[in-house]
Amino acid sequence: MTASTHAAAKNPPDLQDRREALGVLARAESRDIADGLRQLDDGLSYSEPRPPEVGLVMLRGRIGSRGAPFNAGEATVTRAAVQLASGEVGFGYVLGRDREKARLVALCDALWQVADRRAAVENQVLAPLRRKQNEKKDLERARTAATRVDFFTLVRGED
Amino acid sequence: MYVAVKGGERAIDNAHKLLADARRGDREVAELSLAQIDNQLALAVDRVMCEGSLYDRELASLAIKQARGDLIEAIFLLRAYRTTLPRFGASEPLETGAMDIRRRVSATFKDLPGGQVLGPTFDYTHRLLDHTLAEQGDVEEPATAPAETGRFKSVAELLDGGGLIEGDDPPADEIGDLTREPLSFPANRDLRLQNLARGDEGFLLALGYSTQRGFGRTHPFAGEIRYGSVEVEFFAEDAGFAVPLGSISVTECQMVNQFTGNGTQAPRFTRGYGLVFGQSERKAMAMALVDRSLRARELGEETGSPAQDEEFVLSHSDNVQATGFVEHLKLPHYVDFQSELGLLRKLQVEFHARDGRDETPIQDAAE
Fold first, then answer.
1. CA–CA distance from B250 to each of A25, B72, B315 (Å)?
2. What is the ipTM of this complex?
3. In A, which residues are within 8 Å of B157 by CB distance?
4. DSSP for B286-334?
5. CA distance A38 to chain B (A)
6. Tens digit of pLDDT for each residue in B186-203?
7. Which residues of chain A have a CB within 8 Å of the CB of B58?
8. Each residue's pLDDT tens digit, A25-38
9. Per-domain residue ranges of chain B
């Protein structure tokens, strides 16, 4: 692991931002991430310490939603790691079996750690993804809200 | 016992070609795509993921296509596939309390904070066949309304505040995993829930139903059922922190059941819990009913009903194991059968010999 990832891990606010960015990337479609990355691609050179690999993660629930953990069933997960020529190591961990997506997420994660590249990653890659995801989520929530039950009580008779 | 019998290779090859042909069906009819199955048979995909115990919509859709819609066969395919992959580890426990809710109902509190939202449900439909679906047509855009945001407290949390309901189990030192260790009895609640989560929906439904009809009654109320998406996080050793992996859809059922209490503890409601992949209320509710029934001994209740018998329930809930054992009867049992035939012939010879000595079967039975 490089000095910069250690620095990120030791810096909680930074780590929170990084985790949030990884969450946006994990929910995104591979081609949307690729579209964003193309905007800032100026001959990126990187190596792949961990080429994309498909495996399983056991998903855990909690008994009664807040109690002791139990194994609820597995999910497919793809992971990858890339290292920039400048040393930063990025990780891609995503649900599903999209190897290209895991690689792209890892690449974005690595670029995000480079101080003078973070803004570009935020603007070109993450911002459009966030916009798209928020629109979708807002629409789903609004449609759900339209199915809310407004109870009213009918009073019958005089008593 | 069954033995290898040679000679069927060509027949098997040709049978599989015939299967592929039958699967495709009439070539004049458009072939199904996986996206069509995922989108338009979404609840079948949910069931296959849940009982196949593998969350992957595309693989479940493929399994359904390959199995010609035979869901237990599709579940079998998914279970077989998972054995080919390495396991990276276990996720952080899902926070269903932070679920992005698409449906939430309670049969116990009309006005629970956050409200009741019906979402996409079959409830209140008239169960009349809709012949307009036989033709392709446009579907109306769903209505929208301003949405409340924030975390919706579960009914268990609401009751917990008043001390009216039992609390949560403390975390165990070790979390049982029946994909790694064969099931042994007595099984802890974590293992039981893992077993039920991948158990056959029909089997659990029948068992849950049996408790309602009086075979181990638990007086259940559907405290809360919620369906929606939850974030998955995984602590990645190489990264050194919990990485968000994306989100999955789950259905959760909190069943509230009649009281427990003793000399030192005030009477309180007890709980049963169900958690399943995708949108499947029936399965989540049945799971919660059976979870609660299996706690009979722990809660000092009378036992003896099928749904309270841990070994019976957990040993027969898995439809892949069940179908394997039932369907293995199709395999050649020629040697077994020959030995049974031999024995039967011997018994018949003895029977007729006795007959010759004028002994009646009734005397025989009385011996």
1. 21, 20, 25
2. 0.91
3. 66
4. HHHHHHHHTTTTTTT----SGGG-HHHHHHH--HHHHHHHHHGGGS--H
5. 23
6. 999 999 999 999 999 999
7. 96-97
8. 999 999 999 999 99
9. 9-82, 96-119+150-323, 333-366
